[in-house]
What does this fold into?
Amino acid sequence: MSELTHFNAAGEAHMVDISEKADTERTAVTEGFIEMEPSTLQRVIHGDNKKGDVLGIARIAGIMASKKTAELVPLCHPLPITHVDIKLTPNAEKNQIHCLSTVSTSGKTGVEMEALNATQVALLTIYDMCKAVDRGMTIQGVRLLEKKGGKSGHWQREAD
It folds into this structure.
């Protein structure tokens, strides 16, 4: 990492000028978890939630969130998202649901923020749909796992 790019020479926040950058294929992969009571997880797994298909709705929410990132994060560029994949995997041993989000584009800037936003909103949607039975759920571990493309190339988080 070199410098913070969202500040100009005077130290003021600004949107980075990407007009001279080349379009490249870019992908980001993020993850996060939501931990809950065992009975809450069982409701999700068995489809016994009064609000409906928790994982299906959370998946759609994550996809929608990736496309709305520039409306929520002030200095993000609006991007033409070309692919979003949200995988939600229940883990009964840990009483949690793992979210893995992959977002791709062909453009001048990366999609890390879009993937992080997708993961956060998918997990928030699970919370929203299950809060009537479990207000103690915890969202945790939201982080970038990998990014590909652009001037900085490929980056991958080292295994824990």
User: Anything to note?
Assistant: The chain is about 30% helix and 30% strand. Residues 24-149 form a domain with the Alpha-Beta Plaits fold (CATH 3.30.70.640).
